[in-house]
Design a protein that fits this description.
Four copies of one chain form a homotetramer. By secondary structure, chain A is α/β, with parallel strands linked by helices. Chain A folds into two domains: 160 residues, Rossmann fold, CATH 3.40.50; 157 residues, Dihydrodipicolinate Reductase, domain 2 (2-Layer Sandwich). Helix content of chain A is 30%, strand content 21%. In chain A, strands 3-2-1-4-5-7-6 form a seven-stranded parallel β-sheet, sandwiched between helices. In chain A, helix 6 packs parallel to helix 11. The radius of gyration of chain A is 19 Å and the shape is globular. Chains B and D meet through helix 8 of B and helix 8 of D.
Chain lengths: 340, 340, 340, 340
């Protein structure tokens, strides 16, 4: 690829936007030409985050609307804003990677309950490609509009895919998952005020969470089967990191082999022999999977670990962009975790 | 009760020992007359922890063996040390509350696999009372030897008891639980070195954990039924706190009512209407329970929250002592959480 | 004291208010009869913080104005609200302990610069007793209106008092101090949003901080001398805790003796032989002081450690109340730190 | 530079070693051919830290001694081990960057007191170049043996250099500095066990610290003057990050201009207009400086912020290597901070 891709980041000063800028800054084939931020329009990114000084991005002013023409847009926007922004960009011929949830679920009737709005672009739902490269790589390559997966669904679907791919049958899955606080976004709330979040382990959205229908929908797209997901998310005192534990009843005992076989060629999914810590994936695009078959209860237990802002959001968005544009898939996202 | 109870704390400088001293210092009917510590023998507790100055305990030297006669011993010892210490104390007519796991499981054959030793006092296993007051209060009152429950089993059994009590039938339970780091004890390890534990969410003992047979055994004692527990513990970056999520298939939908009914008279168990944070129970003997019935998956989902060093260990030990001695059950353990 | 003191807490749902309720709940001579909160009026404290259940306070509704007559008010209010609330209460004959800064500095002319308002009750400034018991105990006993000290001034003045008392001369002091995040209050801000405060060490108010004139004023009240304080506060990732390091040039080398001598009778100030951690004072009214004379640079270096919400605010307020009412000074505030 | 530099990392599994491997992995002109670790000899780095999989380093076995010839060695060793390792490598014609303190201070007589050993290679002390590029760039370019600065001295000397360079006179400096826990190394200790370090702010080495003579020595090398440094380090609950506050009496009021002028051409030192958080430099080679002149006390107050494992250790070591080899100075160390 000789030419540089011109990119616009909408919602550049939220957590997924900032993390995206971090990855894109070092991407050899990309230039961020516009960074949209309603909150900080008129300021420079390096005024907000001084470590951007000395990079070309420090010269880029944050604006209310894109200031220059571009080829591809990343949408790090609220769901309901993405809903209308995506179609207008697609009409103008732009490529779009949408990090919101506005186009992830194929059934438009689920949006009022789970997202609080009527889906006003139902026709477009069919054209949105679900951007989980390890599962939908070939479709993403041909896509012009990618719905970047939610963080929980990313961790969970990678942990379920080996079963789904092999046709292992089950009708229910229990997902118990733990997230770092950044998953809740940058907007301040009483509960996530530092003094109140320190030493706080808490469950939330126990009755329903919008990632439940997302998981169920994608499971159906892969396997053709209705599987019910019982999902209980938690937040704990760490900025980043996500660990999902997946439980399913099955008689398929060769779980480890299944996982090794499925992911042996993957750059960003690694099957590990000991339960992994999230610390090993922070700042990376990696997913670490620890599969186990429990003979006593006849259950497969899968532990899946990602960075909610990395593979769970921004680095996966870059991976999708790489596939859409025909770049080497790992370009710009081969980072090492910061340890300790 | 006119007289002051003389108490000896074995293993006084581990986390459960230190926490026990905190509660006992303010207990009006108790005097700690001996504090045993192999590691710090010859030193004063206030040399190690200066906030004990100005309390009578600061005058007490830590010793290798008890220095004065006593009525009741708390054993905050390694499992295999408690194994032999408890019988010798009982023989001398002492009351014993054992915070280790040496006498929690009634089947002696499980100890080699789960504790790494042959159980050398099988006859005594039948006399050890399982010290979960909300379930076994009357037995504890008559007990001379109490096996204080493990932290995970405490959180989980309180979450299961309403079902067990009412005879709700199920043959399998999934327990996904999160603990603060203090649950792993005071001994330093690489993984729990501060820089490596910060930002670290990790699963451990996925294949087996010694609290699994403890839960199954007590479930059987309560209900007479064999129930298999699938248990996956996690550690997250907080010193204290424990949150367990319990999943079970059942057609009993009136879960909330069941919980309110079961615990309406309890001082230390509270059924709450919103998912609770562990922050509300740190430094207390409280267990907060959030019950929910998920119609979609026909599962009861129970979130249970305790302080692993409080209700999960030391304050529960004091509660047991109160019952054994006929003190008011809540004496010395009516603390408020530190917030924030 | 036979009778129970009726108390009203204004600003009951901020951090100092909540901490005050924690101490007052266990105070044998006090009953909180009103708890004022603009934000949460109409709700019960146990709705907000469920660990208050089972205490009499859980029955108390938060209200916009006091609902019952009382003897003494604690003001946990914004500075400018305390400014007018205190005089009206005093007029009605109430005793007042003001935890705000509205009456701490005796020179009214400093308020516009440091507090942003003209001081409208200048005459009252002379009647406000500065509530640092170890220095002003006798005056506090006779006081009807106590200005409870700021957290930094508490830590610093206790570290300077031995010099001031002995007439050791110096004209400048450097104070470098570190606070936990709760010192900034309960109001959410971007900077103290959990993900942004984790791994963040930051200096603030480097040019000026309202605690600087407070320290200088009290130094003058004690010693009659003008001393300039160069003060640089920091915030670090912990909810509670405060450590101040005080530097002053002096030829007085017998610093340790000076400190032992000054504080040998004090219940809540302890001179220690090793640099203390804040962890030893969290949840307590203790101040730990580590004095050192550095011969190389001819400087005294004092490390002072408190809980910013304890001795730095709420437990000190209770200590002041005890003195004002003639209760035993340590009543209700003899707590042990939570460790670990 | 056409050829790839062969590098050996001694002490590869300590924190500075691991961080060095992170930077070197992405360095285009370098290949790590040996990684020495006494503790983990025989294992692969990717067994310990799975995120190294998919990089060439994952194929490299950790060994007791280097397994292949190399051009340059980084010594991430205990001081006394570096003491003897450095000379033997230099004799064999290797280039050496020593991250220990064995060769930082030019006066051999200070080592027994501050490092606990007699300096057995006094002649070599004169050849060790102090590796602070912003101050000694030209000397480093010609060096074959670089003593990489301590973390505190790096933060402090960059904050003093503008004064020293301009000949501003002062005879005493007060340094109050805060470090993350990783600065104390990877070896576990009771105090840095996670449950005991959480909520802990603590001062240490108040009487003396080995970085004091290092700072004084380098100040003398730069300015020719004896300046006494009063240094008080603190540790707070964060893995990484360092903030130093520097106080000095001076009549030079144009502090800000002085700093802007001194560092305007520097890639890795940035003068900022608001007090910076350490969060902006974590994972980078940046030093952020906030200079302020306090007219009231006639003191310059400088806040200096670095990553103790970055500019304070490993990325600075790479910067030194780049200079020694004639690579572009910023090669491989132009990273962005992870935020949040």
């Amino acid at each position: 690829m000789e030419q540089t891709l011109k990119v616009c980041v909408y919602g550049a000063t939220g957590y997924t936007g900032i993390e995206l800028l971090r990855y894109l800054t070092n991407h050899p084939h990309v230039r961020v030409v516009s960074a949209v931020s309603k909150t900080y329009a008129g300021r420079y990114i390096s005024d907000l985050l001084p470590y951007f000084s000395h990079f070309y991005l420090s010269k880029l002013m944050l604006t209310e609307e894109p200031q220059e023409d571009f080829d591809l847009a990343f949408l790090c926007l609220p769901h309901d804003v993405s809903l209308s922004t995506a179609p207008s960009l697609l009409e103008k011929g732009k490529l779009v990677v949408d990090l919101s949830g506005a186009y992830r679920i194929s059934d438009p009737n689920l949006y009022p309950e789970f997202y609080g709005f009527e889906h006003t672009h139902r026709e477009l739902l069919q054209h949105a490609v679900y951007g989980l490269p390890e599962i939908f790589r070939e479709i993403i390559k041909r896509g012009r509009f990618v719905a970047n997966p939610g963080c929980y669904p990313t961790a969970v679907l990678l942990g379920l895919y080996p079963f789904l791919k092999e046709g292992v049958s089950f009708d229910k899955v229990i997902v118990d998952a733990i997230s770092g606080v950044s998953g809740a976004g940058r907007k301040t709330t009483q509960h996530f005020h530092y003094p109140e979040m320190e030493q706080s382990i808490i469950a939330y959205s126990v009755h329903k969470h919008r990632h439940t229908p997302e998981m169920e929908d994608i499971i159906k797209r892969i396997s053709g089967k209705h599987v019910k997901v019982r999902f209980t998310p938690k937040v704990v005192p760490t900025s980043r990191g996500m660990l999902a534990t997946i439980y399913l009843h099955t008689e398929e005992k060769h779980v480890e082999e299944l996982f090794w076989e499925t992911y042996k060629e993957e750059r960003f999914v690694k099957v590990v022999k000991d339960p992994p810590t999230t610390k090993y994936v922070i700042g990376t695009n990696m997913c670490l999977l620890y599969p186990y078959y429990d003979e006593r209860t006849q259950m497969a237990v899968i532990v899946s670990v990602i960075d909610n802002l990395g593979k769970g959001a921004s680095s996966q968005a870059v991976q999708n962009m790489n596939l859409m544009l025909g770049f080497e898939e790992s370009t710009g996202i081969e980072t090492l975790a910061l340890f300790p």
